[in-house]
Amino acid sequence: MVIDIKTSKNTKANKKTKKNLNQNRWVNVRLVVTGIIATLCFIVVIGHLAIIQFVEQKKWSERAYNQQVNAQILSPNRGTIYDSKGEILAQSIAVDTISLNPGKITYSNNNDVPDEVVAEGISGIFNITYDEVLKELNSSKSVVVVEKKVEKDKVDKLKEWMQENKISAGINIDEDSKRYYPYNDLASNLIGFCGTDNTGQVGLEERWNDVLTGTAGKVVTVTDVNDNAISDEDEQYVPSENGSNLYLTIDANIQAIAEKYLDQAMVEHPTAHSGNVIIMNPQTGDILAMATNPDYNLNDPSNYINAGFTEEEWKLLEPVARTEALLNLWKNKAVSGTYEPGSTFKLVTAAVGLEEGIVQPDTENDFLCERSYKVAEDHGEDVFINCWRTTAHGYLSLRGALCNSCNPAFMQLGERIGKDLLYKYYEAFGFFEPVGNDIAKAYKGIFTELDKVGPVELATASFGQRFEISPLQLITAVSAICNDGILVEPKIVKQIENTDTGSIEVVETKKVRQVISKETADTIKGMMQSVVEEGTGRNARVEGYSIGGKSGTSEPIEERKEEGYVASFIAISPIENTQVVVLIALYGVQEESEHQGGAVAGPVAGQILKEVLPYLGITANTTTAETTTENTDELKILQDVKNLTVYEAMQQLKNSGFEVVTNTNADINSILVTDQLPKTGTMLREGSVISLYTAQDEERTKVQVPNVKDMTVAEAINSLKSKNLNVNVDGTKGVVVSQEPTYGTEVEEGTVINIVVKEKLVDAQ
What we know:
By secondary structure, the protein is of the alpha+beta class. The protein contains 23 helices and 35 strands. It has four domains: 51 residues; 177 residues, Penicillin-binding protein 2a (Domain 2) (Alpha-Beta Complex); 274 residues, Beta-lactamase; 124 residues, Trypsin Inhibitor V, Chain A (2-Layer Sandwich), CATH 3.30.10.20. Helices cover 34% and strands 23% of the residues. It starts with a helix and ends in a 7-residue tail after the last strand.
């Protein structure tokens, strides 16, 4: 065989050449792909830069600017709440927030302070344990809040401790404010309180939060990377708008009177679980007082004692149950609660009948009470509803029916009126709409739907049962009767003061509609006077004054017997030119005790009117409003000044017209008031002496009571005041016939001496 060696060599060379060509081709492909990818990436980058430059320029500019901006929020001052005469009911006072910077707490020489030293000092001053402080110091937190709303005495202790230990950094004292209520529990369910962020939680604090809060401001500064202000950038200043002040229609003195007698009634009728009082001017709609029992301390609203629990009982409650208990305690039931009004509602039924000409006030034998009255038939069975009295009233006029609060008579009147007409007037009187939304969350009346009202529902509605309304709705309706038949909206805010400009916005009386004629209104008021003089309202009589009223006793249905009765009374005075309407209701009164409204609530209404009428300058023995100055216009309620500095307390009391005595030798700008005499809530004349005590006052100054018998009121006041004693006067004309404590008794300065004043009788010759 002959082999061509040259050809073989060429073949190998060709194969090598082909291999090299393939490799080069692959390299070229890779280069091309890499180039394409690089080009695409370049295009993407350029495109993104273009988007940033042209499309998102504003966004990124703002982001870059914001990173350089330092904004300081300027918190507005929360407005103050005053009563109608300028007494402070709620105010914000300066406090501090204490915080720590773990790892940055240093001595004056820049050495670190041992954690144990910090823990010992902080736990000894604030409400936090030694171990809790250590735990926080060893945490990863940059800032640890120790306590908020810290008052001056604790801050002073902290500053003193830091100075003694030469601590210069890492413990922060930041300015803050705290809501403070000088009278503690006065009108608590009405006023409400603020949370830790000074935002209103309940009551007027919540309802008027936007007005009271104001608007935050800010200071904006542009800084460099080192947080230094850039000099060529202007500082932007947006001032805060402080919250406005509220002046209420409430009079603190009248509020104190209402609460005093409500509390007394709760003690005298221990089966009642709660109660409320509303006092209103029917002509203006001004609410002069709105009291609730139980109430609570506005400066300590979450205290379980306020809710009626022991410590052991409170610990056993689940968190949800605790919250519900507190929410119920804080609730303003005069506005946000409903009840069956009972016989007080007969005033409305009578007004409808008179207005429509269906009945006359004094028609003899117009109604017949045989104790039981047949209202319907049910499956062949007669349905009877009884009168409250165990014996029949017999024949009655409308006036007699109202005086005796006869249920059968009003069931008969309801039948004559008919459901359609009754419901028309219910709407006109405002029972189908919420009343008092500017006070709290208001509820409208709960009535059976008109098309479902049968004979039984019509009968019970006629005498005020088996439907529910709020106490404020009822007193508003009765106030319309007392205001010549004109319904006005109840009002709680008298005026709003802009604290920045000083401008005043007066809240005007709002007339809603004419519900009944003046003639009908006058007739109803005359009948209410008969109820007090001759009927179930005798316990509400006040000597020298024309008083009208109506009692109410709401009986629970059989299935809810344990809830007890609602004993209520509504009173008006004077009969002509009526200026005061009082509604009192006690809830849960049990059958085994006295539970009739006239006996339970009637006396309370009388006690309230006995003090309120002269205070308002309404003279006895007249039916018109006349002003008197004798022993009435000077009365003021003493506020709580405990836990204020002596200086702050002195200023507040002097602004209220009182004189102050104190024996402290300490700095009055730093030492706190621990006690006061007389006690909070005492009614005093302007110029009365208030004794303030501090923790350093081991002994109290005592004086002997002088003999003021046979002196005039003015002489007695001057004599007692010379000893730094105060006076409570029972009577208006004459001389002092008795005093308590008696002459020579040793008492503390500030003690109230009770004197009785009477005209001396001249012996006949």
